[in-house]
Design the sequence.
């Protein structure tokens, strides 16, 4: 008879093939969290399979949906759905009430990752000579100076599919490859070179404003790190933990003695060597290590690599300001007073332009999810005349005459065309439909590079 070995308490129990791990553990009195009652509506029963993963059956539809939603790795399974047929060794990832509060998707919108080992590029930057000129500037000037630099550096990192982990003092940490992007290594180098170029453009401004020589140093390392969320429930932040993080930080610091601005580790060099030009290399012993390692100073990307990345940058989506921005249309395709409906994978988005502003929102009235505007008005036959915006900036829904403030999304008036009983003419069979009061789902939008972009997360 096959057995289950549950860690960290090292409890081993027999089971009959076909039983779920959840049922087996409960029948033997082994505590395992399960907030949804075993219906795959949460991930509190998740386990980390250490041995026997190859013999486990594939995820069923319910487990697969949760795994895709939370981006669970292949060896993290839901105990309520997994029905093993052979010996299995696993670690329970939700052990007590504190873990339960952190992991319960029934109680909050996001999930706190238990952590997953991934190969990523760690990016560390630091301001050269920060201590010396920070003593000469007022705190307000110092804050302005750093924020001006961080705003540009952060945008460059996100444009290259990097994730900004944190800003600490004058330092910045970012991670490339969080989602397993194949070109993460090269993009990390590209982001670093673009950041240095941005700093070079800032130098005259800082010299004129403050009389300082502003520069930064960057260190990059490709290695394995545990990627997961850290923080109290509701205040979590994705981060990386492991030796690779410490190595990247020390590589950045090695620039100081080497007199360089950008150094990368040998593993990263091996990943990008066909696409970069190297200025020099050094052999150093990083702080806290015994062995010497080789670090490479990157001069630039080769022309072909730069062309390839620039082609990739012309994508239908970009990451910026912590949001995913989708390309909607060319700027000149939407005149003042016009609106258009654009199809995205998530939903249809209506975009309107007035004399001063650009608005974007889900093209579905919050009441009954009926479209404000037809995607192709010429094919509209039975629907009422299209929704419109009045002179006060209120979007008036054509279906039941609800009004929504386009500046805030708040309800100005609700379903004025319904009868006193909440019934809509022609939709009597639906009964009272006066409920479901919800504001308009406004979406951020911006114009850049000749296109209108919509922020969808």
Sequence:
């Amino acid at each position: 008879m096959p057995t289950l070995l549950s860690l960290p308490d090292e409890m081993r129990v027999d089971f009959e093939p076909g039983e779920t791990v959840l049922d087996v553990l409960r029948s033997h009195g082994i505590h395992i969290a399960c907030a949804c009652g075993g219906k795959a509506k949460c991930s509190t029963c998740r386990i980390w399979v250490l041995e026997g993963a190859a013999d486990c059956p594939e995820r069923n539809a319910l487990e697969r949906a949760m795994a895709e939603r939370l981006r669970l790795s292949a060896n993290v399974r839901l105990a309520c759905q997994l029905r093993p047929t052979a010996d299995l060794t696993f670690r329970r990832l939700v052990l007590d009430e504190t873990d339960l509060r952190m992991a319960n998707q029934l109680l909050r919108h996001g999930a706190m990752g238990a952590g997953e080992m991934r190969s990523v590029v760690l990016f560390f930057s630091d301001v050269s000579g920060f201590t010396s000129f920070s003593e000469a500037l007022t705190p307000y000037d110092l804050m302005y100076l750093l924020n001006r630099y961080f705003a540009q550096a952060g945008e460059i990192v996100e444009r290259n599919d990097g994730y900004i982990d944190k800003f600490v003092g004058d330092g910045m940490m970012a991670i490339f490859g969080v989602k397993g992007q194949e070109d993460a290594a090269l993009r990390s180098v590209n982001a670093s070179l673009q950041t240095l170029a941005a700093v070079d453009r800032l130098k005259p401004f800082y010299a004129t404003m403050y009389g300082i020589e502003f520069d930064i140093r960057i260190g990059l390392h490709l290695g394995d790190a545990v990627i997961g969320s850290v923080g109290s429930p509701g205040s979590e932040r994705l981060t990386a933990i492991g030796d690779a993080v410490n190595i990247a930080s020390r590589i950045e610091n090695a620039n100081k003695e080497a007199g360089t601005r950008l150094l990368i580790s040998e593993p990263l060099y091996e990943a990008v060597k066909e696409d970069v030009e190297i200025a020099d290399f050094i052999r150093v012993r990083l702080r806290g290590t015994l062995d010497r390692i080789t670090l490479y100073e990157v001069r630039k990307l080769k022309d072909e690599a730069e062309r390839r990345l620039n082609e990739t940058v012309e994508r239908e989506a970009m990451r910026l300001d912590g949001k995913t921005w989708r390309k909607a249309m060319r700027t000149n395709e939407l005149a003042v007073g016009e609106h258009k409906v654009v199809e995205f994978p998530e939903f249809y988005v209506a975009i309107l332009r007035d004399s001063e502003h650009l608005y974007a929102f889900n093209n579905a009235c919050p009441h009954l999810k009926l479209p404000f505007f037809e995607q192709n008005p010429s094919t509209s036959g039975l629907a009422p005349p299209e929704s419109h915006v009045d002179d006060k900036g209120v979007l008036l829904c054509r279906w039941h005459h609800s009004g929504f403030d386009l500046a805030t999304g708040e309800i100005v008036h609700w379903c004025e065309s319904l009868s006193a009983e909440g019934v809509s003419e022609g939709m009597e069979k639906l009964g009272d439909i006066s409920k479901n009061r919800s504001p308009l789902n406004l979406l951020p939008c911006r114009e850049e590079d000749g296109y209108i972009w919509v922020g969808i997360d």
